[in-house]
Amino acid sequence: MVLLEFIVSPMGKRESVGEYVARCVEIVEQSGLDYEVHAMGTLVEGELDAVLDVMRRSIEAVAVDCDRVSCTAKLDLRRGHQGAILGKVASVERRIGHPARRVGGQRE
Q1: How confident is the model over 66-90, as pLDDT tens digits?
Q2: What is the bridge-based pairing of β-strands 69-77 and 41-46?
Q3: What's the CA gap between 22 and 25, in Å, rounded?
Q4: Which of 17, 23, 48, 75 is positioned for an S-S bond with 61, CB 3.0–4.6 A?
Q5: What is the arrangement of strands in the sheet containing 69-77, beginning at the earlier edge strand?
Q6: Is residue 53 predicted with pLDDT exceeding 90?
């Protein structure tokens, strides 16, 4: 299994990029892969070919009306492991003894 964290950014467009992020999230959702959207990117879990295809299609979707697109990606390939999106966070939470997420001064 592979964890892929990626960011697709339109270059030369307005400051807000939510419209472009939504295009990418729709592609991720349609893939059927496990994923998590966070404030600075999207995390997807699946087989290597599947996650790379999601990233490629996301880049192409943004490039439809952008002359320049930037993509930043991190891959973690770990054979024999599944459920890493939640599992990695749960491992840290066990070690610190409480939920790791903190939003607005509150733990979720």
Answers
A1: 999 999 999 999 888 788 787 788 8
A2: unpaired
A3: 5
A4: 23
A5: 34-38, 41-46, 2-10, 69-77
A6: yes
Task: Say how far apart CA 17 and CA 6 lie, in whole Å.
Answer: 15
Q: What is the DSSP letter of 102?
A: E
* DSSP string of 35-53, one letter each residue: EEEETTEEEEEE-HHHHHH
Task: Please identify which residue in the block is written with the tokens 């299609």.
Answer: 57
DSSP 8-state class, residue 105: T
- d(C-alpha 94, C-alpha 77), whole Å: 23
Q: How far is CA 52 from CA 8, 56, 75, 103, in A?
A: 13, 6, 10, 31
Could you please report the per-residue DSSP string of 85-99? HHHHHHHHHHHHTS-
